[in-house]
Amino acid sequence: MKTDVRHASHPEAVRAYDTETLRRHFLVESVFESGDIRLTYSHYDRMVIGGAMPAGSALALTAPEAIGQETFLAERELGALNIGGAGRIVVDGKVYELSRYDCLYIGKGAADIRLESEDAGNPAKFYLVSTPAHATHPTVLLKREEVRHLTPGDTETSNKRSIYQYVHPEVCQSCQLTMGLTMLEPGNVWNTMPAHTHDRRMEAYLYFDIDPAQRVFHFMGEPQQTRHMVVANEQAVISPPWSIHSGAGTRNYSFIWAMAGDNKSFTDMDHIAISDLR
Q1: Scanning 30, 38, 59, 176, which has the fewest C-beta atoms within 10 Å of its C-beta?
Q2: Which CATH number is 96's domain given?
Q3: pLDDT band at residue 90, thresholds of 50, 70 and 90?
């Protein structure tokens, strides 16, 4: 298991970042590695994101040094959303089967977590998001067809999409983690435009279902000091609380969003008028 630690950046410092520096601080270029777990520990709200891609034997989720606990979920909760082949997660001996687009919420205190693929030739890809937790909520298997489904946007503004809310107060209780999936329909490329910030919560994005020849332009930064990063398939972005977060692709794509902070209100946004962006 490999763990990378990312420290917080002041917005005034980010104004001076060149492309390489911006990517080093905010882009996770390699989320999945066959037969391993890769984690990125962010000092924004202590969120951990990562990928587990079992190939053969099961992968055990242990606590890295950055967490400072004997077990990974001693003082944390976890969401694991599968974007690969069928797999399973064993939580303290109980088996949960996850097909593509299934998500497992695991509550604080679970001690033994093992991740497996049903077929090593078509491995599961578990995208992991973990946040600090103050209480224990039940572990819940969440299937895409059963969670809260929204269909905002339209083709005139190129942002018709489906939003699936998995770890959300109306679907599954958590301490502070919220997590879901957005899928843009063919011919649509924009997400979250007009842009917004929510200074009370940080966010992370995993972009996927992107053709190898295509890219997503992820926009970030202060509203009057915007920046962008070019993102490829299965790469993740750490979005600070003070930053806008919006994206446009060279064709449609999907992404997993996850938030942590002072509240779990999906609609808690400070909207920025398009005409005010710089």
Answers
A1: 30
A2: 2.60.120.10
A3: very high
